Amino acid sequence: MRSILYKNELAKRAFYKYLENAKRFSPKSIECYEKAIWLWEKHTDKADFKLFNQTRAENFKDWLKNKKKKDSQDTISLSYCYDILRYLKVFFEWLSKQTNYRKINMTAIDYLNLTRGEVRIATQPKTKQCPTIDEVKTIIENIKGKTEIEMRDKALISLIFLTSARISAIISLSMECFNKEQLTINQDPKLGVKTKNSKRFITALIPFSYKEPLRYFLEWFDYLEKEKGFKPTDPIFPATKKENGKNNLSYFSSTEVEPIFWKSNTSARKIIENRSKQAEVKYYYPHTYRDLLVKEISKLPLTQEQKKAYSQNLGHENVGTTFGSYGDTMLDDDRQIEIIKQTSLTNKQGGFNCELNNTELLRLLAEKLRK
């Protein structure tokens, strides 16, 4: 048994190395494959990967579809099953090409598939939830104080709103990443910015109709530069100051920061969550602010060049990624009904003439261009 575990472990390590170095996957993406393989080993009691066959594939698929959610009697979703099976297929397809594993039957790997009906259910588009501009405004304006902590939190949410940048990039920005004259952020991995796939790109601050966030961010940046004496390599969003109290017990200050980068996204996410609760606004994950931006610009009659500019601003090489993955979402039921009710259809010469108000016409034209 020990030798089998050892061989399985070697195979997994080689696969993860392949994903990292050959496919250039991020650690977060590789974790998805690790989870899928861990579930396979749990079901098979860590059997030798060589024993993979059609029967084992079918048994695992049935076991997975009947698996219960944690602390619940409900079974896991088909979308979860779809993803796990998809990751496993990649692993066993790769494994079947490796020395000592070439007897794995490729046809058996195909049995790690859901039915066509189940795939349709698992992959059907869902209505994305993202904050509105009014909700973001409520959160930001609810931060009233002038302590360093409050100024930082206000500037943090403001910059996320103004750039739609990923939270990992936001917390790793140094002072030298911001160009005050051009109002741009240089998301450059060479400067320590943690971007997706280590891509370097420039992000211009978005000229929303809600202007105050720009002022809050600039005031914070100037404060760090002039009052705190922050150097170019210091963080724009520094960690809360840690102090030693009585009996040498450490505690975090409630008012001050120090020029230290956060070690993970957790602190920044918690700030947004707590500030949302204080403002009595639903908490949305930082990533949904990207959806907010695309949702807003999708209402505009943009030219192809303008769409390309916004796409690059988000770090996308392909416009389809911006207006597909983020923008091409299902309408809320209420919104769908509202649009239908606002549309007047009159039959002219055997066809239909659709009369819309100007706002709806522009929005629908923008959607047509986007598609």
Question: Could you explain the architecture of this structure?
Answer:
The protein has helices spanning 2-21, 27-44, 54-65, 78-95, 106-109, 116-123, 133-141, 148-163, 167-170, 212-227, 266-278, 288-297, 304-313, 319-326, 333-342, 358-370; strands at residues 178-179, 184-187, 201-204, 239-244, 250-258, 344-348, 351-355. The chain has 371 residues and is mainly α. The protein has three domains: 2-123; 133-292, Intergrase catalytic core (hpI Integrase, Chain A), CATH 1.10.443; 298-370, no CATH class. A three-stranded antiparallel β-sheet has the order 1-2-3, with no helix packed on it. A two-stranded antiparallel sheet has the order 4-5. 24% of the residues are buried.
